[in-house]
């Protein structure tokens, strides 16, 4: 009698649960992507002196290029338009900085006097108020603070020296930003068309459209952030000036600069304004200042952001928070500043790259109400 055939042994991959096989397939692919991301970040960190100025120059170009294009459409030579816009921008920025510094120098003695008076009043309250502390305890606390500063004087000095040693890198970065902005404003579109040539012909047009869509989002982001920062600075600065808080204009300038770091910057600079109001004018004015900052932030969040940011650069708040946190961990303040515009650029570019109809997706995302450009970067016609 013939024996029944024995069942064949299952291959190794068939012996593993399908769920485990799928998880393993996802795992090694994710590990490869993670390794690629780490490699990119490592390269960026090595050439940070180049990457950061170019990124800042790209943001400045996104802010100024609508003005250059406007002059170009009205017959001005492209180079002359670039020179006029840059010189005007430097003149305005220099005038604002000069005015702010002069106001700071003028108001600093009064601020010191008011802070000193507040400290004296606080000491009197600690001695005569409910705390009933002795003057010896207060003086001991002050001496301890001074001694702590003296003990860490060497560290502070070495930190200042290390900061001074980076002066050359700062100057080099500033010059690189300046020249990069010039070339981006003059022929940035042609530069991108040249870069896109490294991609295969079959996807070159799609990559060009994706870069254009990403830069349109960057224009919208920078323009909206500038408007929001200006409104924040004007609103908070006016309130501080009406209340008579010292250094209202320098504080408003800090609010303007801090607003370029979404969520975090405005909160930090607003908190500084509250501290100054508390030290110089008391608790009531500090609470009023806090209420003013909250009101301006609500105006920004519910009216300005939806109105001027547009659909093309709308990002989920979680993406903004995680982007700022990740950028801050990787590159400090500069990383927090560049994280959100980078996410906005990549978001719009990927949507065009992955869309079935890139042209339709780009048209839907476009937020630039200026001219349309051909593949060579020439002005075709104005949008109607």
TrEMBL record:
Pfam families: AI-2E_transport (PF01594). It is found in: Cell membrane. InterPro entries: AI-2E-like. The chain crosses the membrane at residues 26-44, 50-71, 83-105, 170-188, 221-245, 251-275, 282-299, 319-346. Its main location: membrane. The keyword Transmembrane helix applies. It is a multi-pass membrane protein. Keywords: Cell membrane, Membrane, Transmembrane, Transmembrane helix, Transport. Residues 363-384 are annotated as: Disordered. The keyword Transmembrane helix applies. Belongs to the autoinducer-2 exporter (AI-2E) (TC 2.A.86) family. This is AI-2E family transporter.
């Amino acid at each position: 009698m013939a024996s029944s055939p024995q069942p064949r042994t299952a291959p190794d991959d068939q012996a593993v649960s399908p769920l485990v096989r799928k998880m393993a397939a996802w795992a090694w692919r994710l590990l490869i992507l993670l390794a690629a991301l780490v490699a990119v970040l490592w390269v960026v960190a090595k050439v940070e002196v180049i990457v950061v100025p170019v990124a800042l120059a790209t943001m400045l170009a996104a802010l100024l290029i609508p003005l250059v294009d406007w002059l170009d459409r009205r017959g001005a030579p492209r180079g002359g338009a670039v020179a006029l816009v840059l010189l005007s921008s430097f003149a305005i920025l220099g005038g604002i900085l000069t005015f702010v510094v002069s106001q700071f120098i003028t108001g600093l003695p009064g601020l010191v006097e008011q802070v000193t008076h507040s400290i004296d009043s606080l000491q009197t309250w600690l001695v005569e108020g409910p705390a009933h502390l002795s003057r010896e305890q207060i003086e001991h606390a002050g001496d301890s603070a001074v001694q702590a500063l003296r003990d860490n004087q060497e560290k502070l000095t070495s930190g200042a020296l290390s900061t001074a040693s980076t002066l050359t890198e700062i100057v080099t970065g500033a010059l690189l930003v300046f020249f990069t902005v010039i070339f981006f404003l003059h022929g940035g579109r042609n530069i991108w068309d040249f870069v896109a040539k490294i991609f295969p012909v079959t996807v070159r047009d799609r990559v060009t459209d994706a870069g254009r869509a990403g830069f349109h989002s960057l224009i919208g982001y920078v323009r909206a952030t500038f408007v929001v920062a200006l409104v924040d600075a004007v609103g908070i600065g006016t309130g501080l000036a009406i209340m008579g808080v010292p250094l209202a204009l320098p504080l408003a300038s800090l609010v303007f600069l801090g607003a370029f770091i979404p969520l975090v910057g405005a909160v930090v600079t607003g908190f500084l304004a509250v501290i100054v109001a508390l030290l110089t004018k008391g608790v009531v004015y500090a609470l009023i200042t806090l209420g003013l900052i909250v009101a301006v932030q609500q105006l920004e969040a519910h009216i300005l952001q939806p109105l001027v940011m547009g659909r093309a650069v709308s990002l989920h708040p979680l993406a903004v928070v995680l982007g700022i946190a990740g950028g801050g961990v990787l590159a400090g303040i500069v990383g927090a500043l560049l994280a959100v515009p980078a996410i906005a650029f990549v978001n719009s570019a990927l949507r065009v790259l992955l869309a079935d109809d890139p042209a339709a997706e780009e048209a839907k995302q476009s937020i630039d109400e200026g001219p349309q450009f051909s593949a060579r970067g020439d002005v075709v016609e104005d949008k109607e």
